[in-house]
Each structure stands twice: as C-alpha cells, then as structure tokens.
Design brief:
single chain; about 120 residues; mainly beta; seven-stranded mixed beta sheet; four-stranded antiparallel beta sheet; globular
Length: about 120
C-alpha cells in the first residue's frame, strides 16, 4: 500500500513563506511527482510537477515564487512557496505517478494540506 503524507501547511501572512513536504511510503519507484491545489469554489489546478531527473514545470501563477524539488532517496517532494498571496489560499495535494509506461498513469495522492494566506 502506497501512502503519501503531506506536511507544512498552515496560516501565513501575505508576503510570507511556507515549505510543503510530501513523503511516499514503501519501496517504490516514482516517476513524476507534483502538487495540485484546490481553492474554495474553484477547480483543482496544477501548481508544479517534477521529473525524476529534476526537470520541473510550473503553472504561470507559480513561476518566480514557488520552487518544486525532490529527494529521490527519500521518495519526498517539496514545494517552497515564497511571496505568498491571499489567492494562494487552497488545499494543496501532492501526487506521485508510479507508472513508467508512456501515456499510462498510476497516481497516488496525499490527503491534502491547508494553506491559508492572510491579507
């Protein structure tokens, strides 16, 4: 059973920083890892993804302020968020794709962690 456990969410003032972590349990080989978020009343949106070789892609709203990284030895992905804005308020979910087959996904998800940015 693969489990992803997130941590690091909380309440922060606008302009502040938070670092989210997501650790996957088990002896597994993870392909792409990433973070999505869902703000109140909005659809889920991608924040950032990172490949096993550390190639990363970001949503336009995240560029310049948010950095994704991973530690493959620890099966852990991180999301460093700086210059936070009230519109970053959302539940943040990490995922890990265990499929290495092109165009085939095998995603596992974390339980979500709340990030609240006060103005």
């Amino acid at each position: 059973q693969v489990q992803l456990v997130e941590s690091g969410g909380g309440l922060v003032q606008a302009g502040g920083s938070l670092r989210l972590s997501c650790a996957a349990s088990g002896s597994i080989s993870i392909n792409v890892m990433g973070w999505y978020r869902r703000a109140p009343g909005k659809q889920r949106e991608l924040v950032a993804v990172i490949s096993p070789g550390d190639g990363a892609n970001y949503a336009d709203s995240a560029k310049g302020r948010i950095t994704i990284s991973r530690d493959n030895a620890k099966n852990t992905v991180y999301l460093q968020m700086n210059s936070l804005k009230p519109e970053d308020t959302a539940v943040y979910y990490c995922y890990a794709d265990l499929s290495w087959v092109p165009r085939l996904r095998n995603d596992y998800w974390g339980q979500g962690t709340q990030v609240t940015v006060a103005s």
